[in-house]
Amino acid sequence: MGLNDTVSAERIHIGFFGMRNAGKSSLVNAVTGQELAVVSDVKGTTTDPVKKAMELLPLGPVVIIDTPGIDDEGELGELRIKKAKQTLAQTDIAILVVDSQVGLSDKDNELIAEFRKRNTPYIIAYNKSDLTTVSADNNSISVSAKDNVNINELKDKIAALLKSVKSDKRIVSDLINKGDTVVLVIPIDESAPKGRLILPQQQTIRDILDSGCTAICCRDTELEQTLNSLSKKPSLVITDSQAFGRVSKNVPDDIPLTSFSILFARYKGDLARVVSGAAVLSKIKDGDKILIAEGCTHHRQCNDIGTVKMPRWIEDFSGAKPDFTFTSGTEFPENPEDYSLIVHCGGCMLNEKEMQSRILRATESGVPIVNYGIAIAHMNGILRRSVAIFPEILKILD
């Protein structure tokens, strides 16, 4: 992916679902105009979800996902079905591909029920219209991947649904005014990637610049010097959560302070929900099960925040010895009811749909969830200050 490309987490995810041999892969190839997926008459050719980030006219930057058949069989088939269903969590728009000669199956109807439960807009594409034509309606279309029939019309239907899923959320630009100065505190330690900034830092800087504001970056070790050098105090200081304690001591009380992780909790998740979850950190007992979940699968460092620092901070803060479980990437439990608390990363590598899905699963299971930034602010006694820029959130802490 080029430097100027839209990152996958910011692209609309379009998932193709259905039974084996309904023609999902053929339709993916027809829609994209590329041979993205292997096509065969043999059932079960697609064994894992296949993802491709691309520009799809007239839709713009998207991620296309081809999934295994939901009627796969055997022990391995069950694993494939599980992978297909995991894809639902990140799908913004679903295309249910149905063999027009067979019609809707019970499993297709189960998928439709799942789309509705997740509030995922969907289109039923009756494929193989070269063999049998099916009457379509506003929510469906008759297509032929083989003969390229109604493929552009299917794209038009997808484009019409985009309006309902595109978010107008901003990372920080709605909190500042044109001409403001924002200081970003970016520690450079053993966990920092060599020679580059991590994704949330890049995206926040770009959002600030797009707003006609000035972004000043410094390490936590140079923060005091940086603030003293400014002729006008900044409108906001944003820090990496790991440096919250040190940074808060150097930022005067009259300058708003928050973290990248907190901003992303609002941008992609549910800030009110994760702030509410912070209170559980003060009630942790020996043996409580805590899930620490990350959305990416980065290389673990010796002092990794998720597997090393966060457990240590929680133990020091609570005085207890909880039982920690760690997940990364797509491996987030479907039913996390066994946990006393979920501590999640900022979710910068997840799209909004998947982050919202994880919060929903926690909520439906009655499990409190908090993210790294909120947890660290709470454990440093500065949670109220770190969310003060969101007056509606302060009410939760009153």
List unreliable stretches of 5+ residues. Answer: none
CATH structural fold name of the largest domain? Rossmann fold
Q: Main β-sheet: number of strands, strand sense, barrel status?
A: 6 strands, mixed
Report the total helices: 14
Main-sheet strand order equals 2-3-1-4-5-6
Q: Given the helix and strand composition, which structural class is it?
A: alpha/beta
Overall structural domain count: 2
Q: Tally of extended strands?
A: 14
Helix content: 25-40%
Brief overview:
The chain is an alpha/beta fold and 398 residues long. The chain contains 14 helices and 14 strands.
Mind explaining what this structure looks like?
- By secondary structure, the chain is an alpha/beta fold.
- It has two domains: 8-165, Rossmann fold, CATH 3.40.50.300; 170-398, Rossmann fold.
- The protein contains 14 helices and 14 strands.
- The strands form three sheets. Strands 2-3-1-4-5-6 form a six-stranded mixed beta sheet, with helices on both faces. A four-stranded parallel beta sheet has the order 8-7-9-10, with helices on both faces.
- It is globular.
- The two termini are 46 Å apart.
- The mean pLDDT is 88.
